[in-house]
Amino acid sequence: MTDLDFVSLDQKSTVAPYQQVREQILTAISDGRLAPGTKLPSVRALAGSLGLAVNTVAKVYKELELQGAVATRGRHGTVVQAAEDRGDQEVSDAAADLARISQMWNVDEGTAVKYLRAAFSSLPK
What we know:
Elements: H1 17-30, H2 43-50, H3 54-66, E1 70-72, E2 78-80, H4 86-104, H5 109-121
Antiparallel strand pairs: 1-2
């Protein structure tokens, strides 16, 4: 198991702690510090070392799994699945932000997608 001693929280940041942790792990995967097959600390262990709630770290691992960056293998733990492409990571983060903001402002999915398509069509060709 790898100690994620490079992960730290900026208490003054407006970015949520779970997003800070997720971003730092994704960056470590993309720059090779966390190679495919590397076992991550348990949710409880990482939460304890960062002073976070267990549910917060569980949310990080769940999102990383949904992005395909890690795989959770039950009692065998969570391992790095593949190096995350930085471009895919940025787009995935932006999509998550769009969904969150849309929900916060009661904008339905269809309307949010319409805005996204309009943004693409306004880009120079």
